[in-house]
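Dig into what follows:

_____
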Amino acid sequence: MKISVVMPVFNEIQTLEEILEKVRAVDLDKEIIIVDDCSTDGTRELLQKMTLRDNERVFFHEKNMGKGAALRTGFQQVGGDYVMIQDADLEYDPQDYHRMLKPVQEGKARVVYGSRFIGERRNLFLHHWVGNRFLTLMANLLFNTTLSDMETCYKLIDAKIIKAMKIKSNKFEVEPEMTAKILKQKIRIYEVPISYYGREYTEGKKITWRDGISAVLALLKYRIMD
């Protein structure tokens, strides 16, 4: 089984090389697809001069469009059997890939989410915790499920599902859109605990309360529309 790791990147010069080495160190058959969303902090230039391995490719956006747009670009290049989404910061530990793959290897799931709320983690800000819990509860009510962490970055998804999915969101609302479209196909999501080290805004965290509002609207939109 080959894993396609799709890594959207925007202004992550401080963490990019370290997270790439962590992904490389995971002992799996994999390819790494990096999409730079028009970084302005030197990340783009770093990627341009970086020596890539045979299983690594980089794509560049000519203007900043958001995480959803970067994922859409990456998904179009997927050649593996399963897709793993990996943010370019250091909040998530790639060694958790093995834990996430276990339900797939055992034939229990086609979609696995890594939950930040049932595993080891650095505590979140209270308003982030409340926001995440509210959005997850809303998703559960709208789609009759019992997720604990809808907004998690770590999503492992059958590539056939990804290739058939028409992602429309350009920004962070891509998370509820993907969840909604998976659940509307009656595909049950399997959750496993992962470690999480949430970073501070001074460390480059980008998501804000406005993204929470966008997520609410996206859940409502994709409950009704495709």
Q: What stands out?
A: The mean pLDDT is 91. The helical segments are 16-24, 43-49, 67-75, 97-105, 126-143, 159-164, 174-183, 209-224.
